[in-house]
Design a protein that fits this description.
The complex is a heterodimer of chains A (320) and B (228). Chain A is of the alpha+beta class and 320 residues long. Chain A has eleven helices and four strands. In chain B, a hairpin with a 2-residue loop joins β9 and β10. The chains are: A alpha+beta (320), B alpha/beta (228).
Chain lengths: 320, 228
């Protein structure tokens, strides 16, 4: 080749390889524009895919929010649950006062209320249909009762108080708490299982969308390959398309969760109030929003990556 | 120096039909060479071996002394970006504008958009389509589509241009214009291999001609001999 015909190596590199990061950035900018164009080319099908992804994300999101709020509510109920100490029948008011004074000094006790046998009997009359029967009793059969509000974990305190002299019975429903914990644990596992199943479904939905897109562009892709497109060149717009679907689905899921919270806030607050607690429904928060967007984007990207990878592995028989 | 060299190349398609049998020749850098023969002589198969759409069963295809058998994976794409290919059926993307079709090799090469536009406009002007930038291929005549395919093949200033029957659907005057474009390319550093069965065009153009028959290279005619 003559000197005039020989193209300098630097120019050839520039022509055929671009300039590193800048070429990579341009590739992504073009791929993003192309993905947007593909989205707009079939708006109904694209919206349907995004909506299915949104539902797949919304269900675990709602379940997760419900679980988080239930856990919080359970925590509130547990925290407010009191330990009732029934004194022996031979203990009188001064014994009860002395014990209450001692208990209030404990760091794990928030408050101690005294309930006399008379107060207990009056309460019993109000709360039961046995008022007439109570009149038949010779005296008051009820002991002095100390109602202890724990400051912290109630179970160890209940065990400690059982060892106090003069206490006949300690009433603290540990089994109820254990059952609640078991339910919450089960619900958490169901949530993860549900999320995994729906994530697999979301992957299949995005993968199928990309597969259909590739099927409709078979000739175009074959031409791109003949003209020197690398797998990354062909995959890049599809990854952006998957990412757009995933992010769109995540935004839809967050909007759905916000709508659900709006609809459920009032009845849930009323329900909580009926149990004597106040409950403001808690949303996903900045972390939850970020995690949902990241999960949507990751699912969309991964679904597109798997489908495009499979197509490209089978479409370059002479290249390998 | 030979830019392109084939040594004992054989290729048969499934079913046993031999497309190329022991073909060997070399082409110097900056040369324009015709490849001719009847339909089924092996012209298109040879071009496919050169742009790696097919692989030889035996023998070696060397470009710049590099055996293409060793070009695999990502290197295939890199190698193809150094080629220009004119397809017999144009193979333009129907939904893309003429500008985007022609810009494709530059964009695949990562050329900056500021450079893509001027180069696309320049090459389209050279093939007489400077005023059809926004047109879609279905809006173009067959001859215009062929010229657009040529513009796409040359816009990246390729090392080697492969053209499969580039004037097959064109009238003689247009065919002569297209050949005029090809004749400019060696001056710009591009080696050109044109597969054509148009003997009148080959005689008019007067360039070295390789003759294939039933997959065998049966003649290698120098330009001077064609003139005679």
């Amino acid at each position: 080749m003559s000197a005039t015909r020989q193209r300098p190596a630097a120019e050839r590199r520039r022509i055929y390889a671009g300039s590193g990061t800048a070429a990579w950035g341009r590739g992504h900018a073009r791929a993003f524009a192309f993905a947007l164009a593909r989205w707009r080319a079939a708006p109904l099908a694209s919206a349907a895919t995004t909506a299915v992804l949104g539902l797949a994300l919304l269900l675990p999101l709602l379940f997760g929010l419900a679980l988080a709020n239930a856990t919080r509510l359970a925590g509130t109920l547990e925290a407010s649950r009191e330990i009732s100490l029934f004194l022996a029948m031979d203990r009188d008011g001064s014994d009860a006062e002395a014990l209450a004074l001692r208990l209030r000094a404990r760091p794990d006790v928030a408050a101690v209320a005294l309930r006399s046998p008379e107060q207990g009997l009056a309460e019993f009359r109000r709360m039961s249909d046995l008022a007439d029967s109570l009149d038949l009793l010779d005296g008051n059969p009820l002991p002095w009762v100390l109602v202890v509000t724990p400051d912290g974990e109630p179970a160890p305190l209940a065990r400690a108080l059982a060892a106090e002299p003069g206490i006949e019975t300690v009433q603290y429903d540990a089994a109820w708490r254990a059952r609640l914990d078991a339910w919450l644990d089960l619900a958490r596992r169901v949530l993860w299982l549900l999320a995994a199943l729906l994530a697999a479904g979301a992957l299949l939905v995005v993968g199928n969308t990309v597969r259909l897109d590739l099927g409709g562009r078979r000739e175009e892709i074959a031409l791109l390959q003949l003209l020197g497109a690398e797998d990354a060149d062909i995959r890049r717009p599809l990854l952006w398309l998957g990412l757009l679907h995933g992010l769109g689905g995540a935004v839809l899921a967050l909007a759905g969760a916000a709508l659900a919270a709006l609809l459920l806030a009032a009845p849930l607050a009323a329900l909580a109030a009926s149990y004597g607690g106040g409950l403001a429904l808690q949303g996903p928060g900045a972390g939850g929003i970020g995690a949902t967007l990241a999960a949507g984007a990751a699912l969309g990207w991964l679904g597109a990556r798997v489908a495009a990878g499979h197509y490209l592995r089978t479409s370059r028989p002479a290249d390998r | 120096m030979a830019l392109l060299r084939l040594e004992g190349v054989c290729k048969a398609y499934p079913g046993g039909q031999a497309a190329l049998v022991d073909v060997g020749f070399s082409v110097a850098a900056g040369e324009l060479v015709f490849l001719t023969g009847h339909s089924g002589a092996g012209k298109s198969t040879l071009l496919k071996l050169l742009h790696l759409a097919e692989r030889p069963d035996r023998g070696a295809v060397l470009v710049e002394e590099r055996n293409l058998a060793a070009v695999r994976g990502r290197d295939v794409a890199r190698y193809r970006r150094r080629l220009g290919v004119v397809f017999q059926d144009h193979r333009l993307l129907p939904d893309w504008s003429l500008h985007d079709n022609v810009a494709l090799p530059l964009r695949l090469a990562g050329i900056a958009e500021a450079e893509v536009g001027p180069r696309v406009r320049e090459v389209l002007a050279r093939v007489g389509l400077g005023d059809r930038l926004a047109a879609r291929p279905p809006q173009l005549s067959t001859g215009e589509q062929q010229r657009a395919g040529i513009a796409r093949a040359v816009v990246g200033r390729p090392l080697l241009l492969l053209a499969d029957e580039p004037t097959g659907n064109l009238d003689p005057q247009l065919a002569a214009e297209i050949m005029g474009l090809f004749l400019e390319l060696p001056e710009r550093g591009t080696t050109v291999l044109v597969a054509s069965h148009d003997l009148a065009l080959i005689k008019r153009t007067r360039r070295r001609t390789l003759v294939l028959h039933a997959g065998r290279l049966v003649d290698d005619i120098a330009a001077a001999d064609l003139a005679a």
